Fold this sequence. Notes:
Two copies of one chain form a homodimer.
Chain A: E1 3-9, H1 13-24, H2 26-33, E2 36-43, H3 51-56, E3 60-63, H4 71-80, E4 84-87, H5 90-106, E5 111-112, H6 123-130, E6 136-142, H7 145-157, H8 161-170, H9 179-182, H10 185-199, E7 209-210, H11 218-227, E8 230-240, E9 244-254, E10 267-274, E11 278-285, H12 289-304, E12 318-319, E13 324-332, H13 339-349, E14 354-360, E15 367-376, H14 377-388, E16 398-403
Parallel strand pairs in A: 1-2, 1-3, 3-4, 4-5, 7-9
Antiparallel strand pairs in A: 6-8, 6-10, 8-9, 10-11, 13-15, 13-16, 14-15
Amino acid sequence: MAQFRVGLLGHGTVGAAFAQLLPRRAARIERITGLSPVLSGVLTRSGGGSFDDLLERSDLIVELIGGLDPARDYLLRAIRAGLHVVTANKQLLSHHGEELWDEARSHGVQLRFEGAVAGVVPVIRVLQESLAGARIQRVHGIVNGTTNFILTEMARTGCAFSEALAEAQRLGYAEADPSEDVDGRDAAAKMAIIARLAFETPVHIDQVRYEGIERIAPDDLEYARELGLGLKLIGTAERIGDDRMSVSVHPAFLYPGHPLASVNGPFNAVTVESEEITEITMSGPGAGGPQTASAVLGDVISAMIPPASTPPATERLQVAGDIVSAFYLHLEVADQPGVLAQVAHVLAGQGVSVKSVVQKGLGDQARLVMVLHPVLESRFAAAMREIAALPVVRAAPRAIRVIEEEFV
Amino acid sequence: MAQFRVGLLGHGTVGAAFAQLLPRRAARIERITGLSPVLSGVLTRSGGGSFDDLLERSDLIVELIGGLDPARDYLLRAIRAGLHVVTANKQLLSHHGEELWDEARSHGVQLRFEGAVAGVVPVIRVLQESLAGARIQRVHGIVNGTTNFILTEMARTGCAFSEALAEAQRLGYAEADPSEDVDGRDAAAKMAIIARLAFETPVHIDQVRYEGIERIAPDDLEYARELGLGLKLIGTAERIGDDRMSVSVHPAFLYPGHPLASVNGPFNAVTVESEEITEITMSGPGAGGPQTASAVLGDVISAMIPPASTPPATERLQVAGDIVSAFYLHLEVADQPGVLAQVAHVLAGQGVSVKSVVQKGLGDQARLVMVLHPVLESRFAAAMREIAALPVVRAAPRAIRVIEEEFV
């Protein structure tokens, strides 16, 4: 199979994760694209080596060194050499995006940058492709995970900004020098890129008004709770009339129904509004090595082949006959002692353990409601049949699955 | 400019919305693709006309008639004639997807179907393109807006299933014959398509276990509230070990932190989990003529040209100097009568009206906290300067923007 050679610039958190991910997913990428992806070389800021050499040995350049220089120069040289390029560099695009996009167009190569905004949350692709036919009215975004984590901590614990920042640093959600995150400049760069795509207007980071969260006090969050509001650092890109727009980043309160109100911790999220689509919201981890590397890899695959068709179904997973689920169980029971003991005995006999129980009502209204820990559905079904046959159970049991908050 | 001729099958809710949307967005599509899109003809189930004629006059076929026949035959004939095709037909793809995808691949044409699952929520594109490099572990989805509206109503009002269904029908969220929605079959078709893409395994709708919401009782929702849970109709596609999967649709309880727990009313949402990406969630309107038509149009544009580059910035929107915002205002004030009156007088003088007020604390702790209605930021800033100068205001006022729940 023909090779597709990927030259990598940068070997920090995202770069190293990308270098690990590419070989792990190579077999799948071969099935999708018909090409075998290989890492042709890695150039780091400090590591020496020749960029011209790397160019000659590559079909595509992935830029993950960050900053303006030499990233800009490297990307321009790759584009002029006719290579597709993928970058996650928000500062570069918010300063020199038009130059790079113009150059890519005139050389007929792809410049992809999903990882530059909100990590693996597919904001860029959705704005550029899914919504290519929509007239976008407004975008709201939580596009900085550090500040969202800090505000979530302040709301949860009542602590001061400085304490929440220290906790974020301890957990790796904030850097040793957190100023670009907490003062809003990082979010401003991302909103400049979003506004460029949403409104087809050149937007430079210096045109974005921004404000950080350093001056948010614990009692702002306390009053907010009384008023029923949540506090986030919100980027806004908004069309005003026919020929104006506003792009800004500010701390802002959200009413509980707002789709961004429930986005907590280091997550990012973006809501896009237009007359045709009403609104769509996307959310997920806004940073992290493996997550951002996944966004970069999605871009690389798209650059390898226009995704013109659904790949053949090369897997043959079997449909499982019996799976593990957690259940809620609702029983109408006799109002007498020992009912819970009988039901619990049956459950224990099938290996079903109880997470929580509510007993309610008297006489005909007596109810036993339980949440059970995950168990094979066949075991649960057997327990249900036994429970339904108990004389103290007065009507058919009702069971509903429970989905727990769990990450892979 | 060269024309790109779109032949339309079907003129129901989505078809009619698409026929309206295409000419409205034609100028933008020309800028992106370099081609001028025109509607070459419309064929309806009842309207007569020749499909062969339409094929000859078209570069792409949009299928929005629904059902298995004649949709399957039309799409196969279009593909064999070398035309790209776009469809929103979930029943067809969940029955005959492999046949259609194989045929499209072997003829080198695109078969796109974003509108078939969750309307304008970009589930299909994200699974196929953004996450092409990820090994997906699990997908959870609220993929039927009718049932989500009914469950939201039952939770909100305590009413019975039949009453909530009647309300859904009154508002146009449920059809006269709602059985495919409420019994889970519509969601099952969508989960079959999602599982096919997530696991690269052929999935037929008959392999999806499904259950509806007809038997959900008001007290299930009441007990759920006591247990801190929310109830949704959840589709699950899950990888089990290395060679098995499970695809199902069931009513299920969600813990409040789950990203789908806050998806209410007729909205759809899908959460995708994998080791590399942690999880991403997408949400938005799952149906509706203009919304689904937007998804179809995004597919048509992608089929017109591989989105290889960021289009030139053809707009030149100005950055607005002064915009309208709502504010929260936090004042440390003297603990004496008349403070609110003085502040309200200043606000009124600048045309700022008050939405809600909380007065708290005594002595040095006296605070006046307000939420204000939207106003030009320059007027608000002028009011802030006057308020800061009031002798009864003892420290610099703190203001934070408030984002209201409002749709375009």
